[in-house]
Write a structure and sequence with these properties.
Oligomer: heterodimer
Shape of chain A: globular
Number of strands of chain B: 0
Mean pLDDT of chain A: 90
Structural class of chain B: mainly alpha
Low-confidence stretches of chain B: 1-22
Order of helices and strands of chain B: HHHHHHH
Shape of chain B: globular
Largest interface: A-B, 50 and 49 residues
Helix content of chain B: 25-40%
Structural class of chain A: mainly alpha
Number of helices of chain B: 7
Distance between the termini of chain B: 48 Å
Largest sheet of chain B: none
Strand content of chain B: under 5%
Mean pLDDT of chain B: 91
Largest sheet of chain A: 3 strands, mixed
Order of helices and strands of chain A: HHHEEHHHHHEEHEEHHE
Radius of gyration of chain A: 19 Å
Distance between the termini of chain A: 20 Å
């Protein structure tokens, strides 16, 4: 109830700013910032925390054809170690012989430990508007939240890790599709907007540090938690590209590149986004 | 020429991050293409071309949109060659239709299929300020407020703005703007409507 009131109040702030926007961009920015501050003011009003709890329950419950929990899943700090694991991802995993981000690693554990069919898990892995984040995403939200307040410290110094970061940078700048867009079209300059939405300059460590650690995040506009893999798919959707497969090398490389840029940035997942 | 450009592009990528350059592994182009192909397994046959940059996009990507003069000239020449003009030589359409398509971001996204009875938008407001009335505009591109008035509604300027919308790289190599005509996002008629939005004295852009 209180949550709904907060969101409603925030919505009115958004609507209320329209008449005064005539003034200048800076006025618009101030009003948007006020909206964001209201959403941040009461952390317990964050609906994403419901998915943190849901994710924890899923993580600890025996599931899948093998009926085991994920408590033996090794996120890089040893089986069962969840605290601080997200802060050191992506990383190279010898058992899978590839670099993995958090969601790709959970996907791997669901397949190898619990016996889920990978193809089923990647077929339709993200929620539509108004639907809750799916199980894998809820668990990713839980694990990320277990690094809340920590700082990104992925080493990314192994050969395959370096290669992932370098591939991510190439992909970030790669323009294709009917709109000729790359990630860099929107995210390679400071202070730009699409409509009224501010765009982070993600190739700049100073700006990447501020925002990358917000994900997975609760999105007010779609009323669900959106994970980083989902966020990338959403960017590619806007770029008029096809559906990005969860766990693909492209997704891992882009996350490795973004995380490298965000090294030292504080983890604040799940944050609240517009 | 092409090989030189690609080699230069690779050099720019390698040098661009200063201190990291030494330890940064070179990424083989074939590897990137293969990774992209694997990452979009649901792309239908008629979407495969979206996965592969054409020569102009490959050059712009390699130089991070700052091509050296020789490459820039090659891009301009290549893109000018594919320009198509209205059959009747008239560049001005209906500014009211132009305003509608400037507002619309519909079209070509994977959720826009199967095609509905709705034209693609140009989504101009996503990146440009155009009119005083629309306050929700982006700033990736320059403000176009007063565009026609500032150019005295000139005929030569009208043709130039048509060309810019049809294929921005013909005048501004490695522009961030989509090649809305050349890539078949908008029809020639729609581009004329967008031209009218910018160049008509009656358009709110010029009020």
């Amino acid at each position: 109830m209180k949550l709904r009131a907060t969101l409603l109040a925030a919505a009115f702030v958004t609507i209320g700013l329209v008449p005064m926007v005539h003034a200048q961009d800076s006025e618009t920015e101030k009003a948007l910032e006020k909206y964001r501050q209201m959403l941040k003011a009461d952390p317990w009003s964050n609906p994403g925390l419901l998915d943190v709890d849901r994710g924890e329950a899923l993580w600890k419950s025996p599931r899948g054809p093998k009926n085991v929990s994920l408590e033996q899943c090794d996120l890089g700090k040893g089986p069962g170690k969840v605290d601080g694991a997200f802060a050191e991802l992506p990383r190279y995993f010898a058992d899978a012989d590839r670099v993995m981000d958090l969601e790709t690693r959970i996907l791997w554990c669901m397949e190898k430990l619990q016996g889920f069919n990978r193809a089923d898990l990647v077929k339709n892995p993200h929620p539509g508007g108004g639907r809750p984040v799916k199980e894998l995403g809820a668990m990713a939200t839980y694990v990320a939240n277990k690094s809340q307040g920590m700082h990104y410290a992925a080493k990314l110094d192994q050969p395959k890790e370096k290669e992932a970061v370098a591939l991510g940078e190439v992909l970030f700048n790669r323009r294709s599709g009917p709109f000729d867009f790359a990630c860099a079209t929107c995210h390679a300059e400071s202070g730009r907007r699409i409509r009224l939405q501010s765009l982070p300059f993600l190739s700049d460590p100073a700006e990447a540090k501020k925002v990358v650690g917000d994900w997975p995040a609760y999105r007010v506009s779609s009323t669900h938690v959106m994970t980083m893999q989902h966020r990338l798919l959403d960017c590619y959707w806007q770029m008029r590209m096809p559906r990005l497969e969860l766990g693909s090398d492209v997704s891992v490389a882009l996350i490795a590149y973004l995380t490298k840029n965000a090294t030292g940035g504080e983890i604040n997942a799940p944050a609240i986004k517009r | 020429m092409r090989n030189i450009a690609i080699a230069l592009g690779a050099a720019v990528i390698l040098m661009s991050s200063g201190a990291y350059a030494q330890e940064k592994p070179a990424i083989d182009q074939a590897k990137v293409d293969a990774a992209i192909k694997a990452a979009f397994p649901t792309a239908p046959a008629d979407w495969q071309s979206r996965l592969v940059p054409d020569e102009t996009m490959r050059q712009c990507s390699a130089y991070k949109n700052l091509p050296p003069k020789a490459v820039a000239d090659a891009i301009t020449a290549r893109e000018k060659a594919n320009m198509q003009y209205p059959a009747d030589g008239n560049f001005m359409g209906d500014w009211q239709k132009g305003e509608k398509l400037a507002q619309s971001g519909f079209g070509l996204r994977f959720t826009d299929y199967p095609p509905r009875d709705r034209p693609n938008g140009g989504n101009c407001y996503a990146c440009h300020q155009l009119t005083k009335k629309e306050v929700s505009y982006g700033t990736v591109g320059p403000s176009l407020l007063g565009y026609g008035k500032n150019r005295n509604f000139g005929a030569a300027e009208t043709k130039l703005v048509y060309e810019k919308i049809y294929n921005s790289h013909a005048s501004f190599p490695c522009s961030l703007m989509p090649r809305l005509g050349a890539n078949k996002v908008l029809t020639i008629e729609q581009i004329k409507d967008a031209v009218a939005l910018l160049m008509s004295p009656d358009s709110p852009v010029n009020k």
